[in-house]
Specification:
alpha+beta, Ribosomal Protein S5, domain 2, 2 domains, six-stranded mixed β-sheet, three-stranded antiparallel β-sheet, 9 helices, 9 strands
Length: 252
């Protein structure tokens, strides 16, 4: 079985509170981007193996999210061993959700391959165990995300009339670095109301809290955002905790 797991962007991102479990509560609009994707192949095998190509993936095989997703289902179901091959295209540490997408799509592929007949709610609960925004990729549709980024509310946002350009400066922003410069605070305005306004208004109303923490230490990322606007973007922002930047352009 071969699947194509897409990226996502954050339209606005507020870090609103630090939790007692060490995580942070956020508010953001998660929007899937289907033109940017990794490729995953899973086939039945005599032993569990994981290989990869494309962008080099740091860490050991045991810590890979695809393998963790397999192990999670293996605990509850008598599924056979598999061979997993991941072709990595989505930049790592760029705020595009690539690793989370890989994990979620592994769950969905194993469910389909071995006819486990899991509901979306069951898959979402498994995905939450793998990472905060993994659950988003189960239903893979625009949502207002809150709490750790793993609770969702449907949103009617539609960017099909715009071209989404994404540029990555090949800078890895670690979670510790990103959150180290953040002072959590409640947002002054409800992000759900702001995204209901015309996209042309977003430049003055929507922000990503991580930009204030990341831009001073990584000027090339700030320049990428400025370049988007110079090239005619209606709206531009860093996505997630960085380092990728996206711009929304009118289709011509």
């Amino acid at each position: 079985m071969i699947v194509f797991q897409n990226a996502k962007i954050n339209i606005g991102l507020n870090v609103v509170a630090k939790r007692t479990d060490g995580f942070h509560n956020i508010e953001s609009i998660f929007y899937p981007v289907f033109d940017v994707f990794d490729v995953l192949e899973i086939i039945e095998s005599k032993e569990l193996t994981f290989t990869s190509s494309g962008i080099a993936i740091p860490g050991s095989v045991d810590t890979n999210l695809c393998v963790k997703a397999y192990d999670l289902l293996k605990k509850d179901f008598r599924i056979p061993f598999v061979k997993i091959h991941l072709h990595k295209v989505i930049p790592i540490g760029a705020g595009l959700g690539g690793g989370s997408s890989d994990a979620a799509f592994t769950l969905k592929a194993l469910d389909e391959l071995f006819q486990l007949k899991l509901s979306n709610d069951q898959l979402i609960n498994y995905a939450r165990e793998l990472g905060s925004d993994c659950a988003f990729f189960i239903e893979n549709k625009p949502v207002y995300a809150y709490n750790k980024g793993d609770e969702f509310e449907n949103t009617a946002i539609d960017l099909s009339n715009y071209t989404i350009r994404i540029e990555s400066p090949n800078i890895h922003i670690g979670t510790a670095e990103a959150y180290g410069g953040i002072v959590p605070k409640l947002a002054a305005q409800d992000i759900r109301k702001l995204i209901a306004e015309p996209v042309a208004n977003w430049k003055n109303t929507l922000c990503n809290d991580f930009e204030a923490a990341v831009f001073p230490n990584h000027p090339p990322i700030k320049k990428l955002k400025e370049k988007m606007f110079n090239d005619g973007a209606i709206f531009a922002s860093m996505t997630g905790s960085g380092s990728a930047v996206f711009g929304l352009f009118e289709k011509k």
